[in-house]
């Protein structure tokens, strides 16, 4: 794999070629060589929404690979070219810096930042033990199904505007997805309404929007990005909170090492379980957003003693 500096140089080089016209981006028409609109997404939840709404009327390219942690994704020159020729880029500004750069240089007029629909927030549920002040906005909006429903509605409208010949299909599939997301929200609300505990101890602070929506308290070992290692003092502080609230489960996730969560669980006499932040699907994994979210709900109900 190229070093970060070489990768950035490659990205800049492709951007220069694009500016000179060596690679041609879409102009008047959003369609690709197949005659369908080309939609590029930054990571899995946005891919899921776009594929559900686009159906067979759109061609989809997701830049984050299965099994890879998408926060610090490095784009290849070929991926920058995909951004440049896209009819629509669906992304979350600030979550993947190299994609932000590629969009700004090559697709600013064809990009949809989902944070313009559901603004990012910060606060007690949106920070971890390694963050002081909690002022950084939390990007993990898709873990609140109602926020993802708002994004879905906007993607549907964007596609209908760009590809009016298929507007009816986009609208129908968009409405169906919004309805299913609202159903999922109702399942979470009912499933977490009567619980013995309301505190979730997580390996990183990905679940703030879920906690806000369903009246839970997130206690996170690390901050908004999972690659930040907590200090022994921070682990001890979270352990004290876990004991205070009688936590029986420490949650870890699929795309990063569970080692710190396992260490904490041993310290407090708890077990561990997967709570999936859905930043990406595990490599070779099955299922989709709905099945993973429903698995998360079942795991939460067990860990929190819900009836």
TrEMBL record:
Keyword Signal (UniProt): yes
Superkingdom, natural source: Bacteria
Cross-referenced InterPro entries: AdhesinB, Bact_metal-bind_prot9, Lipoprotein_PsaA-like, ZnuA-like
GO molecular function annotation: metal ion binding
Acyltransferase is among the record's keywords: no
Signal peptide annotation: 1-27
UniProtKB keywords: Signal, Transport
GO BP: any one term: cell adhesion
Similarity section: Belongs to the bacterial solute-binding protein 9 family.
Name of the featured protein: Zinc ABC transporter substrate-binding protein
Organism whose genome encodes this protein: Catellatospora methionotrophica
Lineage: Bacteria, Bacillati, Actinomycetota, Actinomycetes, Micromonosporales
